[in-house]
Amino acid sequence: MFRNPLLLCALALTVFVAGWGILDTAGLAGMAARYVHTLFKSRGWFIMLTTSTLLLVSIWLALSPYGRLRLGGEDETPEFSTASWLTMMFAAGMGVGLLFYGAAEPASHFFFIADKIEPRLAPAGALFISNFHWGLHAWAIYGLTSLVIAYFGFRKGTPQLISAPVHEVFGRNSWTRPLGWFLDLLAIYAIAIGLSGSVAMGVFQVQYGVASLFSLDSPGMPLTLSIFAVLCIAYTLPLTVDLGRGMARLSNAALIIAIGLMVFLLLAGPTYFMMNGIVGAIGTYAFGVLQQGFRTYTFLGDEVIDWFGSWTLNYMVWWLAWAPFVGVFIARISRGRTIREFLAGVLLAPTLFCIFWFGVFGSLAFFLKGTGRLDSQAVAENINQTTFLLLEAMPLSPLTTAATVVAAFLFVVTSVVSAAFVLSMFSTGGDPSPPVKIKLIWGIILGLLGLAMILSDSVKAVRQIIAMSAGPFVFIVLLLLVCLLKALKKENRG
Fold first, then answer.
1. What is the mean pLDDT of residues 79-83?
2. Residue 152: which of 173, 132, 180, 192 has the closest Cα?
3. Shortest CA distance to 147 belongs to which of 218, 54, 280?
4. Shortest CA distance to 332 belongs to which of 248, 254, 249, 408?
5. Is residue 72 a contact partner of residue 336, using CB atoms and an 8 Å limit?
6. pLDDT of residue 286
7. Where are the alpha helices (DSSP H) in 135-242?
């Protein structure tokens, strides 16, 4: 097990970062902040151009004759039902983040736009920006990465590794061997750091949910660490069972709770107000999404540029950090689907769900703000508690708060389980059924990295550390796209 150089280097690198974060949390956060500031200032345009290119290519592939190609043999059928496929994909890709940001992000954008840009544009603009961050561009990053891995893995028989397309298209030679090894190492690093950040945000949210349930004035670090310990115990068991059985059950349960919460708020709250917001958001997003993908806010002043960087650019590199993990995982569960079916499912279903989700939570936050039942100062001071401030203003708040805590907890568990699986695949040369002991080792390391993030006690610091890990993948995903297009062109000629 420990004779694998890639595994040894990956373990050493991630343990080093975890140790640094635990022993010198401020030092790690400070370095990440400086790196991210430089990256966004000098390469923000390139990040937006890359993500928009991925979306446009995804649309073209889905509509082109290549869309008929099946990810696998021509007679293969999908391993999972469409419902389970979508829920596993969604839970791994975004689950806990939506619970965390469902109300917090639209509310934050609302306050900023009303104060710095134009008050009349605040509600619609806040929903549009939130949907842009979580919609087609995010899922195009996931979709293209997973499509490349699935195409080469199921049609060409390569291992499901980031390096495999490069070796398949350009051959194994003096420059592709070290490059492929380095690509896999960077992918492991990005996955581990990106996932641990979501673990921290999940723990932050659960702790405020528990504090709300038991009327605690301020959740302290002992409560935070207790929740983290329970989480580590909870994700250990699923690492010892089959991926399909464990993930399908956990992700289905988490998504059912989340959907139930959304429907309850829609019916118990000002339904007409939220439905107006949802319908308006669909139209605004549909007609503005492609144009927004090329906006960089260069001429609107430093405050707006900083807001753009801390939200939009941070999200884009966040999705890039998660792309190797979510990409490999989606590829693993997508065998037997056509490219058109695959891209339609990956792009459209999660995007539509996100529009409804933010339409409900965001519109409800705007309504409560207008009626004086949501404190904007409290949201600005601590974004972690926004969802629970919203729920406290609604009927059955103890029940909905408890449901949110359970769903967030399950989403974090599914993310850790699927990430540990993917990391184990990568570090064992693409083994589709990696040994349990390898998955458990990665589970421990993800726990240590998550602890380092938690000790920062700052969502902003967590997001900056994630962004730091994703910088190189902006270029890697473009290389993967080139490999896919070259292979498709060759197959079409054949």
1. 83
2. 180
3. 54
4. 248
5. yes
6. 95
7. 136-155, 164-170, 176-213, 221-236
With beta carbons less than 8 A apart as the criterion, state whether 104 and 263 touch. Answer: no
Residue with tokens 């409804």: 356
Degrees to nearest 5, angle at CA 394 with 392 and 398:
55
Name which of 198, 92, 158 is nearest 480 in CA terms.
158
In one-letter notation, the amino acid at residue 449 is L
Q: What tokens were used for 257?
A: 């709770």
Q: For each of the domains in the chain, give its residue range(s) and CATH number, in order of start.
A: 5-493 (1.20.1740)
Q: Is the confidence at residue 474, as pLDDT, over 90?
A: no
Of 293, 327, 280, give the one whose Cα is nearest residue 476.
Answer: 327
Quickly list DSSP for 342-377.
Answer: HHHHHHHHHHHHHHHHHHHHHHHHHHHHHTT-S-HH
**CB-based contact 153:327 (threshold 8 Å):** no
What pLDDT, in 10s, does the model give residues 331-375? Answer: 888 999 999 999 999 999 999 999 999 999 999 999 998 888 877
Quick: pLDDT tens for 243-254.
Answer: 555 566 777 788
State the Cα–Cα distance between residues 29 and 32, nearest whole angstrom: 5
